[in-house]
Q: What sequence folds into this?
């Protein structure tokens, strides 16, 4: 594990470097407070630090204060190592943000034991961060396909529509629904249906750009938001997505299955005053038309005159 050792006295620094190196730490040294702070603020910098109190530039407590002001994680565990032994100094040192306080001359075994305590705390922090990230992922993603869940994809659509309006750009929104999916479940069972949904999700993600957004809107319905995509590209992109599913049978535990889907497609340029609710209603209506047209096809949502009237009024 990486550890920062900061001390302006070269003898002390060498002594700490040697003993920590022997204990298996990856030691980074600094001769003054500013350099120490610089090292601690680097991405993937040391997360354990031994700081002297008196150093040129910034002293130990000042480095602690600066480190604690950072909002970024991860946590840095800091031990002040100093010859100041008054209780006032101990209190001052800890209140500046240090986690522990060791008085010079230190006992090497005690120092190592205190560092092990620090590592325990850091491991605990890592586990908490990981648990938080897992929970955040579960709250925003669909458990079967790992795509965004309905709540997240609608939030993202809202955000994207706001950005599109602000920047006067254009987004394309697609609602895709598998054709006769009930028959897959009825003929081959729910588990095969799940396999199909997972593979369709994988193909949807594979056929959009990395910054496009794809979510599971409902059972076998998917919503895609393609940023900075113009109206002229809308149907072309929708056809690519449709083909990504229709052109290759899906391998399942019951053999390969031919699956198709229908898509409603909408360009935000055609609906400049609409909020996400209206957009979803319109793209769903276009999807309904694609189903009515025989399925396995894409239908572009066309604004009607009722929507065009308010735009006219605004001019
Ligand atoms: P259409 O072409 O008109 O869309 O017909 P459809 O059969 O695809 O549509 P319908 O709405 O009648 O049926 C959708 C089916 O999707 C019914 C439901 O059991 C199934 N479904 C929804 N969620 C899941 C899921 O998580 N796993 C599986 N295996 N099936 C699901
Ligand atoms: Mg369906
Ligand atoms: Mg459906």
A:
């Amino acid at each position: 594990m990486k550890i920062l050792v900061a001390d302006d006295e070269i003898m002390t620094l060498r002594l700490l470097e040697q003993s920590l190196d022997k204990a298996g730490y990856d030691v980074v040294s600094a001769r003054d407070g500013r350099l120490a702070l610089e090292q601690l603020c680097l991405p993937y910098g040391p997360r354990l630090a031994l700081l002297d109190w008196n150093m040129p530039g910034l002293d130990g407590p000042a480095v602690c204060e600066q480190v604690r002001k950072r909002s970024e994680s991860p946590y840095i565990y800091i031990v002040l190592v100093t010859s100041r032994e008054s209780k006032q100094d101990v209190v001052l040192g800890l209140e500046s943000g240090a986690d522990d306080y060791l008085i010079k001359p230190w006992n090497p075994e005690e120092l190592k034991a205190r560092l092990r305590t620090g590592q325990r705390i850091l491991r605990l922090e890592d586990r908490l961060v990981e648990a938080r990230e897992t929970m955040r992922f579960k709250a925003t993603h669909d458990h079967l396909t790992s795509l965004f869940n309905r709540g997240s994809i609608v939030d993202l659509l809202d955000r994207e529509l706001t950005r599109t309006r602000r920047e006067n750009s254009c987004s394309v929104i697609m609602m895709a629904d598998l054709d006769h999916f009930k028959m897959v479940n009825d003929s081959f069972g729910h588990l095969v249906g799940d396999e199909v949904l997972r593979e369709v999700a994988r193909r949807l993600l594979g056929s959009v750009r990395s910054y496009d957004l794809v979510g599971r809107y409902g059972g076998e319905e998917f919503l895609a938001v393609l940023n900075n995509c113009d109206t002229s590209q809308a149907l072309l992109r929708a056809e690519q997505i449709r083909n990504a599913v229709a052109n290759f049978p899906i391998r399942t535990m019951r053999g390969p299955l031919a699956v198709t889907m229908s898509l409603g497609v909408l360009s935000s340029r055609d609906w400049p005053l609409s909020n996400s609710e209206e957009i979803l209603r319109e793209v769903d209506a276009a999807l309904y038309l694609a189903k009515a047209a025989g399925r396995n096809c894409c239908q572009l949502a066309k604004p009607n005159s009722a929507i065009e009237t308010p735009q006219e009024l605004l001019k």
About this structure: Residues 199 and 254 are 14 Å apart (CA to CA). The pocket of magnesium ion (ligand 3) is lined by residues 177, 218-221 (CB under 6 Å).
